[in-house]
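re the bet — no i am not wrong, look at it urself. input seq straight from the record:
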Amino acid sequence: MLVRAFASDPLMNYLFSDAPIGVPGGIAALMDLAFETRSSRGWPVLGARQADGNLHGVAYLSIPSPAPSLAGTEAEQEPDRLRETRLRFEATIGPASLERYRAYEAAWTVGAPQRPHHYLGVLGAAPEAQGHGVGCALLEAVASIVAADPNSDGTWLDTENPRNVGYYERRGFRVAAERALGSVTIWGMWRARAAS
């Protein structure tokens, strides 16, 4: 579902345009890594099912402490399964894609608040579910989690799709940082925690 959701995403195409496993394979490998990063640490992984029972959307959230990371930077603290997933990701995407991915990892937090916050690393809806409230429902669930956490001042996310900027702004986020990475622009966006 996430491969289809992110098939035309500017960042995914920038990262994996020449990956040996192709853009769809790169997206799948990255989403596996993002999922394993959260699930291995007990961080929230949310899903939205519709009446047909199929998964139509997901949100992957990192909690305020320890500092959010897509892949973890200290291998000795990585759970074994996460380390295996990260090494498989690095081995399969090829050196050029890995170099671009590492540059992205260094760039996505530029402008992020220095106070404790949640990081919404993935929000995706199946193409056939887009425009039907799936993303909104997931964002509401994220807001509830953040509001209930006294250790969090809000939610940070990044988007590289210009269409998403207005979408997130209409849901209470504001652009807090903007940075170029190769052929894409990274918009860092912030939404303060609402009182629970």
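see?? Residues 72-76 have pLDDT under 50 and may be disordered. told u. also The CA atoms of residues 177 and 188 lie 5 Å apart. so pay up
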